From TrEMBL:
This is Halogenation protein CepH. The keyword Amino-acid biosynthesis does not apply. Keywords: Monooxygenase, Oxidoreductase. InterPro entries: FAD/NAD-bd_sf, Flavin-dep_Halogenase_NPB, Flavin_halogenase. Gene3D superfamilies: 3.30.9.100, FAD/NAD(P)-binding domain. The keyword Transport does not apply. Belongs to the flavin-dependent halogenase family. Bacterial tryptophan halogenase subfamily. One of its GO terms (molecular function) is monooxygenase activity. Residues 472-511 are annotated as: Disordered. Residues 501-511 have a biased composition (Pro residues). It comes from the Bacteria. Pfam families: Trp_halogenase. It comes from Micromonospora narathiwatensis.
């Protein structure tokens, strides 16, 4: 233990993208950081499809962009969808900013075992002490503040360590996420499950879109089809929870095959493919209740990042983005306090506001995107319709959560007003998605829709900061009295601007 009574400035629980990122960004500022991971890397993890902001923003900030470029991951230039009324697939291409070269408008499809290993090894190189096979079982508290962790070490011996901060990045199965207080809530609208496996020999989209994620709607829900290499493909069906009864009636392999046969496009792409039956990709897996959000993401001495805090439906590949973006927000907050720049209450409020806002933007876009599929005979798609008042209570419930229902300042928004405000944006998105397709794979200007512009805005800012080494756009807070990033993106600073940035008022604590 050091003279200040703490073993470390920061203990990070979990070595996935969120944990590796926050640990690296804090260590890069010269602070003492320990990362505890319960498994031994490389280990299997779902979530293979990434967004440009992670690759060209966060990964450039932490110094692994070149290593990822050399790793041979398939290049993803956007997404291809069989969605809405269009009988032919159409494509959305990333188009982020004229400030970037063309490679800034791409991402990767990654094998998470390889991607996560790269990030964890980079954390070690940047000065993070990494200990694998160490499972955290609880946090230490003192005078109402989290001040360390209790964990079982590599030999199974129970130990305690004191730290100024603890970040929980241990995912949806976190054992300590509830120590921030409040509850985890599962929005009814996104109450889905996923049944998925891995295949070899599947077909690829025509160039230049061979590395795209393919999302194909069918009567029972929708499929993802993610090329992980020239030969390996991740394939999953997203269904309502009631479909779990169907899985119970037969083995997972049989049910997955039946679902594939019900979606002609995916069946065509897998016509000559075989399912992987051994190794880490050999299991047909189920994930259920995977969309959720907590009442609060932080408390004195502790922050939640990534899936420990929240997760939203995977149709737009937002999982790793929200994980690494929240890690950046957490690192800025911790670095600012450790440097003596700002007080803890101020930075935690900024962390919470920005994280909750980003989640909310993805939620709004995905609600609208689901409404594009018009299948009146499908239970799945009927349950996803949002264009009438039947879902007002669900919208109200979500708005209250994103508005800070667990905080002292609750930004409750009337559901009817919310729907009226978003009606024009919903219609604008529908016009882009539902227009006729001249030929399969035709590009859509999805970025022209205001809802997607909002979703990508923060990612573009991070990419700009990483690529150019500073802020080139005007930095204004997202709320009255809020903070803005420092020039290098590593800390917060008070804004000289009084007015918050224009755009939809974020439904966040203090808004």
């Amino acid at each position: 233990m050091n003279d200040d009574g703490f073993d470390y400035d920061l203990v990070v629980v979990g070595g996935g993208p969120a944990g590796s990122t926050v640990a690296t960004l804090v260590a890069m500022q010269g602070h003492r950081v320990l990362l505890l991971e319960k498994e031994t890397f490389p280990r299997y993890q779902i979530g293979e499809s990434l967004l440009p902001s992670t690759i060209h923003g966060i990964c450039r900030l932490i110094g692994v962009a070149d290593e990822l470029a050399d790793a041979g991951f398939p290049v993803k230039r956007g997404g291809t969808f069989r969605w809405g009324r269009n009988p032919e697939p159409w494509t959305f291409a990333f188009a982020i900013s004229p400030k970037f070269a063309s490679d800034g408008a791409t991402a990767y499809q990654v094998e998470r075992m390889k991607f996560d290993q790269i990030l964890l090894d980079n954390a070690r190189r940047k000065g993070v002490t990494v200990r694998e096979r160490c499972g955290v079982v609880d946090v230490l508290e003192e005078d109402g503040r989290v001040c360390g962790v209790r964990f079982d070490d590599e030999d199974g011996v129970r130990q305690e360590l004191r730290s100024r901060y603890v970040v929980d990045a241990s995912g949806h199965r976190s054992r300590i996420h509830n120590r921030v207080g409040g509850e985890r809530h599962y929005p009814e609208f996104f109450r889905n499950l996923a049944l998925f496996g891995y295949f070899e020999g599947g077909k690829r989209l025509p160039e230049p879109n061979s590395g795209n994620i393919l999302a194909a709607a069918f009567s029972g829900g929708w499929f993802w089809y993610i090329p992980l290499s020239d030969n390996l493909t991740s394939v999953g069906a997203v269904l309502r929870p009631e479909a779990l009864d169907r899985v119970r009636e037969g083995d997972r392999e049989t049910v997955l095959r039946q679902l594939i046969s019900e979606c002609p496009l995916i069946a065509e792409y897998l016509a000559e493919a075989t399912r992987v039956t051994s190794g880490p990709y050999g299991e047909v897996r189920i994930r259920k209740d995977y969309s959720y959000i907590r009442d609060t993401f932080s408390r004195p001495g502790m922050l939640l990042v990534g899936d420990a805090a929240c997760f939203i439906d995977p149709v737009f590949s937002s999982g790793v983005h929200l994980a690494t973006f929240s890690a950046l927000l957490a690192a800025r907050s911790i670095n600012s306090v450790l440097a003596g720049d700002l007080d803890e209450a101020t930075v935690l409020a900024e962390f919470e506001a920005r994280y909750r806002r980003e989640y909310g933007l993805f939620h709004d876009f995905l609600v609208a995107f689901y409404d594009m599929q018009q299948d009146e005979d499908s239970y799945f798609w009927t349950a996803k319709r949002v264009s009438d008042d039947r879902v007002a209570s669900d919208v109200q419930a979500f708005v209250q959560l994103v508005g800070g229902a667990g905080s002292d300042e609750r930004a409750f928004v009337d559901a009817d007003s919310y729907l009226r405000e978003r009606k024009a944006a919903f219609r604008e998105l529908a016009d882009v998605v539902q227009g006729p397709v001249a030929e399969a794979g035709e590009d859509r200007n999805l970025l022209g829709a205001s809802m997607l512009k909002e979703v990508l805005k923060e990612g573009v800012r991070v990419q700009t900061q990483a690529a150019l080494g500073g802020n080139v756009d005007e930095q204004r807070p997202i709320r009255g009295g809020g903070l803005v990033p420092s020039a290098d993106g590593m800390r917060w600073r008070r804004s000289e601007s009084v007015a918050p940035a224009p755009g939809p008022a974020p439904r966040v604590p203090g808004a």
